[in-house]
Amino acid sequence: MRVRINAACRLLTETDHSVTGIAGEVGFYDQSHFSRTFTRLMGLSPLKYRKRHIPETS
């Protein structure tokens, strides 16, 4: 499970794929299960993780 979530972290920060798309890419067939699992393991929702880990451009 941790390997999938780590892959999702990379995709969230290195791509502009949707959360639903990333969920499928890392092997989750249900986006809400992915979001719950991601939040439980990372302490942030996938979207909040993306916003915190992508540098803002000016």
Please name the CATH topology. Arc Repressor Mutant, subunit A
CATH architecture: Orthogonal Bundle
Q: In the residues, how many domains can be counted?
A: 1
Count of helical regions: 4
Task: Classify the oligomer.
Answer: single chain
- Mean pLDDT, all residues: 96
Low-confidence stretches: none
Largest sheet: none
**Strand content range:** under 5%
Q: By helix and strand content, what is the structural category?
A: mainly alpha
* H-E order: HHHH
State the fourth-level CATH superfamily.
Answer: Homeodomain-like
β-strand number: 0
Instruction: Report Rg.
Output: 11 Å
Overall, the morphology is globular
Helix content: 55-70%
Straight-line distance between termini: 36 Å
The CATH top-level class label: Mainly Alpha
What report would you give on this structure?
Helix 1 packs across helix 4. The mean pLDDT is 96. The chain is globular and about 35 Å long. The chain has a single domain (2-53), classed as Homeodomain-like (Arc Repressor Mutant, subunit A), CATH 1.10.10. The protein starts with a helix and ends in a 5-residue tail after the last helix. The protein is mainly alpha-helical and 58 residues long. The protein is built from 4 helices and no strands.
Feature tags:
69% helix; 58 residues; 4 helices; Arc Repressor Mutant, subunit A; mainly alpha; globular
